[in-house]
Write a structure and sequence with these properties.
The structure is a single chain. By secondary structure, the protein is α+β, with helices and mostly antiparallel strands. The chain has two domains: about 70 residues, no CATH class; about 170 residues, Glutaredoxin. About 65% of the residues lie in helices and about 10% in strands. α1 packs across α4 and α9 crosses α10. The radius of gyration is 25 Å and the shape is elongated. About 25% of the residues are buried.
Amino acid sequence: MRRLAPVLAFAAGLATLPALAQDAEMSAEDKLALHAEIRAYLLEHPEVLVEAMNVLQTREDQAAAQRDLAMLSDNADVIFQNPNDWVGGNPDGDVVLVEFMDYRCGYCRKAYSEVEELVNSDGNIRLVIKEFPILGEASLLSSQFAIAVRQLHGDAAYESVHDALIDLRGEPTADTLARLATDLKLDPQPILDRMSGPEVQAVIKENHALADTMEISGTPTFVLKSMMLRGYLPLEEMRKVVAETRADG
């Protein structure tokens, strides 16, 4: 249907031409004749539809990019400098890459190793992780656990838990999470107790509110200084985007 929208818009535009060309209302017979002419023209010159579709898509893309820029500018502090977010890579990097992620998202898991390679091989990227659970109870429990660990044990412990949750194949039940904490030499009970507390819930609520403001509805979504990338992007494409961001200053 999205691909048909430019066609319908173009045809609707043609249909309004008679109203611009004459003041008098067209008769029913004249309207039928006009519709037949439009149909015949489009069948004879289908390339016009392709051209119209391309022009409209370009305009839509440009409008979306401008809207993204405005949203990024208006919300820059909470996007890039929120103390509730874990920061990895180079804290003083010249490019900031923010990822809205969900531990149960297949594409987030696919992107994980590639983002890690991007950050490590570049050496000058500041990576910001925003916990954005959107795929049900398992997603929520995973994020609650990770945030509780960070609040209780700091950034290093969070990084270890983050890595473990990305690789977790089973369901993140209380028993599973308790074993995970124990494996990482963390006392599980205080973490489990904190998961449903107001401090953890506030972080998740804030991230969801920001996502609504930024028109982010899926994961992974990557945010840079001047653009948003909605969805998975292969490593080499990510490198190009980082290079473009760096070139733009």
